[in-house]
Amino acid sequence: MTSSPISNYAQASKTLRQRDLRQGLYDEGAVLMDGVLVNLHGDRHKARRGLENKVFRRDFFRYYEREIFPQSLQQTIDRFVESSGGDLVEFGFRAMMNLTIDFAGMDRPDNSDEENDTLLRLLRIFALGTTLAHAKDDREKVRQQVRDALAEFDARFLQPSIARRQALIDKFDAGDIDEDALPRDVLTVLLRNEDNIDLPDDELLREMAFFFVAGAQTSIHSLVHVMHEIFDWCCGHPEDAHRIAEDPVLLQRCVHESARLHPSSPVAMRRAECPVTLPNNEQVNKDDLIVIDLMGANRDESVFGADAAQFNPYRKLEGSTAPYGLSFGLGMHACIGRNLAAGVIPHADTKPEDHQFGTITLIAQALLAHGVRPDPLHAPEMDTKTERPNWGLYPVLIGDLAS
Ligand code: HEM
User: Fold this and answer.
1) What is the pLDDT of residues 14-47, one digit of tens each?
2) From ligand 1's centre to the CA of 105, what distance in Å?
3) Residues 169-195, mean pLDDT to the nearest whole number
4) Among 33, 218, 252, which is best to mutate for testing ligand 1, by the most ligand atoms less than 8 A from CB?
5) Mind listing the pLDDT tens digit for each residue in 113-128?
6) What is the pTM of this model?
7) How confident is the model at residue 295 (pLDDT cuts 50, 70, 90)?
8) If both were cysteines, with which of 8, 171, 358, 371 could 343 make a disulfide (CB 3.0 to 4.6 Å apart)?
């Protein structure tokens, strides 16, 4: 049985925190998602998350955002400006791919266009694998594509990355190098496996593919949504165009407001581990599917106001409600990369020079600094391969030469 969708914000929040509900969104996508972090439950989830959390620390996010990300973003932006723009979705894939490749721990020995294009192709296939529940194409065909992509990813990227890291770990264990000389990424942490968790080779492969896609796909769609919302907002509020481009705190508020309206998956799903009474008093039995309507809950007027369905970066919220609503999840599966993507929530006394803005704000800032604007001759299109309401093609112009 499937529960009725839970759209009330408070009830949806409580449901996400209920510990006797396990993950239920990825049953269709087991080919990629079987045994990966977001699909684990109970002690196995706790152990894997505890180990991987060693990479996802706030101090490292700050360092990454300030020291490493700007360089790779600059390269991607420069090429986009050179070509006077193009498809924002494709640009987003390239910009975010660098980030998740770094965090997952995949080496790119050639750093050639061919190598990056191959990774981009694999990323797009893995993205289809994570969203199989919403796929419009023949699902068995997609599963076979994912199997082939996993084999290619393993041979060309994962095995060489493992070999290089294992050699470094052996040197560290022998006392020949310091810990600082080890890469700081998920693969290194999993290979060192200081907590001795159980992780067979096939699960490690899927975990790395999942990490590669988990951060990229969500961030890409969030980026394209927020740029669309900003273009739209500035049509009605032309006086804000300059402010949004110049004030990174206001821009980050735009990112959070857009993330609220456009959660990467419109629903979360859980399966009951045992008979459970849900926060809306509905009784469910073991293995029943529970649907949490994130998009609906994030537009709950009792929490976000009468204009909850509209984009408004100046929205005022009561209490501790997050400006992005439930879009980064809550409870045991709450997004591990949230601060990396969305930064820290700004307050009235936030000083931009000390603040962590998150990578989506940084990318949006760089695009706006180069005068990005919708291409008046080519309309954007929604992605027709998925039931998720994402942009599939978003033509933009950028830079002075584009006008
Ligand atoms: C705008 C960007 C992002 C959005 C909207 C987003 C959203 C989410 C959501 C809603 C969940 C919870 C899923 C559930 O409850 O079923 C989640 C989990 C997760 N996210 Fe993110 N995410 C983003 C960026 C990232 C980044 C940058 C990374 C990593 C580099 C990442 C890694 C993960 C992982 C590993 C999990 C699983 C956590 C667990 O099960 O313990 N995400 N994300």
Assistant:
1) 999 999 999 999 988 899 999 999 999 999 999 9
2) 17
3) 94
4) 218
5) 999 999 999 999 998 8
6) 0.95
7) very high
8) 358
Atom in ligand 1 nearest the alpha carbon of residue 221: 1
158-172, 311-325, 388-402: lowest mean pLDDT where? 388-402
Ligand 1 neighbours (beta carbon < 6 A): 23, 25, 37-38, 49, 100, 103, 214-215, 218-219, 222, 259, 264, 268, 327-329, 333, 335-337, 340-341, 360
Tell whether the torsion through CA atoms of 129, 132, 137 and 139 is positive or negative: positive
Cα(118)–Cα(362) distance, integer angstroms: 26
Q: Around 342, how many Cα atoms within 13 Å sit in the side-chain half-sphere?
A: 27
Cα 339–Cα 209–Cα 63 angle in degrees, nearest 5:
30
